[in-house]
UniProtKB/TrEMBL annotation:
Coiled coil: none annotated. The keyword Mitochondrion does not apply. It is found in: Cell membrane. The chain crosses the membrane at residues 7-28, 48-64, 76-94, 106-126, 133-158, 164-184, 196-216, 228-247, 267-288, 308-326, 333-352, 358-375, 489-508. GO terms for molecular function: transmembrane transporter activity. It is a multi-pass membrane protein. Signal peptide: none annotated. Belongs to the major facilitator superfamily. EmrB family. This is ChaT1 protein. InterPro entries: EmrB-like (IPR004638), MFS (IPR011701), MFS_dom (IPR020846), MFS_trans_sf (IPR036259).
Amino acid sequence: MNKSYRQWIALVAMSLGTFMGLLDVTVVNVALPTMATHFHETFTNLQWVLNIYTLVLAVSLLIVSKLGDMYGRKKLFLASIILFVIASAVNGMAPNLMILNIGRAVQAVGGAGMNSLAMALVASNFSGKKRGLALGILGSVIGISTASGPLIGGYLVGQFGWSAIFYVNVPVGIITVLLTAIYVNETPSYGAKQRVDFAGMALSAFTLFSLIYGLIQKEAHTSWAWTNMGVAGWLIAAVIGLIAFILVEQRVTDPMVDLSMFQSRHFVGTIIVALGLGVAMYSFNAFLTVLMQNYIGYTALQTGVRQLTISIWSLILGPITGMLGARFSKRKMIGYSLLLGAIGFILMMNAMTTHLSFGQMWPAMILMGITNGMVNPLLNTAGMEGVAPQTIGMASGLINVFRQIGTTVGVVGLGLIQDHRYEQYLSTHLSKIANLPAKAATALQKALVDAGPFAGHGIAFSKRMSQAPFAHEFQTTVLNAYANSMRGITLTAAVVFVIGAGAAFFLMRDANDSGDLN
């Protein structure tokens, strides 16, 4: 078999690893109701099945990336897949929630290695125009894996039960291990003779853990102020950890992260775009899923099928962006694509009414999908440009970390905006409903605010509430409150995309810009 065929089979292996690792961030969402019944647990307790994966994934990304750069990315990639497969099997057999959470944490360590090292391995296994095409394809896999969770999860849970979302990783993982072992070329052990920066690794893990956990606490306790020590304490710890990390990295001989990477305007622009993509695009998927299931009334599978309107563009555009990126300015393509996505969010904002249907949403979703399909692959390719071979893994890890942090920040930040606008609308309009006593209005407002916007439809259209004399006007008010909150989210996402476009235009550089990417 010639070298070219071996390269493309190697790309299949790395794409499968990336797909599995990122799919497990979102695929569990649709299985939570079934899990709640199986384990006899509350939805609040089950949230940690999601949160523990997000938390450990973010904490592990940089550490695994550095170890891959030092000792060989293929070795670490293989170890990550094996760990992921074993943890997936344990999760499928989990007898209780504690075992499942532990399994998800271990699974996230494997997922971190699969995500960050796959991109670095593609960059080192391909060169020239083929590298851009390969990174474009991998970027399309990243985009579609994140967005296709509800579709794949909905099908597996509906047909085979909740454990299927974990068991499916076992055969796919075994195939990935075999393809990787045979076809992927190992990279040099660039830091085999260096000392491991244990202090840097510990501080990076502490900083990311504190940041993500603090945001998760805020998300779980929306009534807590930012000054509440359950939130502020963790965020302050993250700031202290970051300062300590920077001081340590400036002094050690072989630092975990070469801080000089952040002196490059191009790289800073790249990670700002990655952050913005997470804040606006990937966090919005969670709100879109709730909108389609809880308010429009689609099943998990019907929601997933309709969300293909967004995710399919990653599959279509990934390879194309690789070819276009070799001919045209990547930063301009990224910038204009983000502006296109901003228009998509504005269209979505304008579509938000009490009688919203998929027919009103799909034009906006297409623009969002095109943005995701264009930006993700180009961002990966641009992020690798100008980076020394020995730090490609770390560059990949940083891009993934900022994308992941952006997603978490987006879920919390957009959620707070939604809660505020939802509560504000209810407080203004519930008291104006005819035949609704003042005490009842106050009680209903408290119930709706405590339950949150996601649960508002279920309360308003419950059997008991539907029989009330004020039912129609009350239901209309709740729907309007939710639409108002979604308009706030979509407007914010549009602004984030505009800021990301500015970072692409004014900070990023093309490789032919005087040959300097700094």
